[in-house]
Amino acid sequence: MIAETGLAALWLAAGLAAYQVFLMVLALRSSVEVARPMRGVAVAQGMLTLIAFAMLLLVFARSDMSVSLVFANSNSAKPFIYKVAGAWGNHEGSMLMWVTILAIAGAFVAFFSRRTGERTLAAALGSQAILALGFYAFLLFASNPFARLFPAPPDGQGLNPLLQDPGLAFHPPTLYLGYVGLSVAFSFAVGALLTGEVDARLARAMRPWVLGAWILLTLGITAGSYWAYYELGWGGYWFWDPVENASLMPWLAATALLHSINVLAARGALKAWTMMLAVIAFSMSMVGTFLVRSGILTSVHAFAIDPERGTFLLALLAIYVGAAFILFAWRGASLKEGAPFELVSRESGLVVNNLLLSVILGIVFLGTLYPLFVEALTAEKLSVGAPYFNAVAGPLALVLALLVGIGPLLSWRRERRPVLRQLKVPALVCVGALVITVIVAPGIGILPRAGFTVAGFLLAASALPLANRNPFRAPLATWGMVVAHFGIAVALAGMAANAAFSSERLAIAQLGEALSVGPWQVELVSVTPTAGKNWTAIEGELRASRGSGPITLTPETLYYSAAPTETIRRAGNILHADVDVQAGNPLQLLTNHRGLELTLPGQPDVLPVTAAAVSRPSVRTRFGHPVRRCFEHLDGVRAPVAPAGLGDLSQHSFSG
Prior knowledge:
With 656 residues, this protein is an alpha+beta fold. It has helices at residues 2-29, 35-61, 68-73, 80-85, 91-112, 118-141, 167-195, 200-232, 242-267, 271-293, 307-331, 346-378, 386-406, 419-422, 424-440, 446-461, 476-501, 586-591, 627-632; strands at residues 506-509, 514-517, 520-531, 536-545, 551-553, 556-560, 565-572, 579-582, 596-599, 607-608, 613-614, 619-623. Among the domains are: 1-164, no CATH class; 418-501; 506-651, no CATH class. Strands 1, 2, 3, 4, 5, 6, 7, 8, 9 and 12 form a ten-stranded mixed β-sheet that branches. The protein has a two-stranded antiparallel sheet with strand order 10-11. It is flat and about 85 Å long.
């Protein structure tokens, strides 16, 4: 009865969402007081969806194979953490998590929001209910997570090995929380456009949700990037995969929205900008949902390949986004802006910031979706990769980073102070960084060199808002701005180092043989079998050294027998984070005793520092079959399919 309880809770929640929409219409068309009953309905709806999601977690935890979703995505031999996390490691479960967070967010808005007018709050809660109602319909009619199997099979097929990682417990929920924060901003914007109450009170009500969404999206994207780095063996922090871009686009829109909301809250200006960005930010979340779950993309990140579900999601996307833009076109022109401001002012700086972020968003959107449009019209497959995004968006991002260092120093409305005098130290650091790169690395490209230079400027400029004041008495918002901008500078330096100093090399290693990569000596010591709770593996032992004591690394190729699949496991050392290793195909390792295939990229590593990165020379080692993926993504060169014998690969040579 657990699954049936969850399904019943979903139906009841959908009914309450429909009633909530009815109350919104009643509030907008009459003077009837509906705010209090609407709050109760929203809280009850959130509790029912939470019950439904708890029931799904329970059937996964108990390995109830009579539930089709559990059979397809779990196995009784799995560790408990992956049984529970497997509840959202699939299409239906992830959508139930989405709508659960959506409904709970609506309950929190109903329970805690006191900063907006009653009519605007009723309209916002009704808009949130309309969003939830569409996803309830999707779950109940197209993606039932509680569907039964008769008779129940003895055991399940198991979870995708790539998802049997602690990242599954953190990455998707964090992103969903960020997406839902943007849904609340969207609902507030729609409600305010319906009632005409776009003011500073609305901005102050939206700001905590947008700030929370931005922080969670930043954490989720960073965690997903690191997960892909060590699990998939791409050899980098970002590959511009379409599904990666699907999470980046809402982040860009949320960044612009966060700055615009601050202007609306402080000065009563940029009302139309703020409403439009709220609509765009959630629209990008919907686009990402469609891309990941429609089957239109072939990606390791995608959940579904069912075109019928894709059509349903496309219809929801068209209804929600289309209606919101029509509403903005109808009511946006009537919004009265606040006090005017001059060209040199903080407001102008934030407008330019929003324009640049919007242009970068458009570039990513075009590069992600253009191949899909071409394929739909001509059946021709196109690939838009890193060269396009780096060449087009990179220079704009550098200009934006420069403005990020200058904007916080400007005054509201009109700047009368000599701002350029405050930039002496950042300018000196900028010139110093340029000179150092010319001396130390004269052969690097223009874009990486510019990245180091701008990063030096921003590192120094980000601390200027704390200059000439007691930092312990500075507002928390100022500290947040300083830390965020400092993080951007460090991330920019890491990206520049990655672009400037990356290289790869292919070699064949014999047992006992040492290979040189940069300052490192890497020796293959042994290859041995090992086993875990629900897998067996072939484990390699390598020793890496660079003048000091050796580091032992033990990468593995894991074989999951529940649904016969295999994956690789990276090995690294937290004290020497510039060395990591990945293993390959166990059949090749067992049947070919002549040596071991190694890919040895000398590449800067990326370490999280205040949501940013630092860089230093590194060694990454892979051996076995998965090295083919690395070749496929190396400077756009596609390698031939790996032959059956490892030794056969010695005739090929790749570098980048």
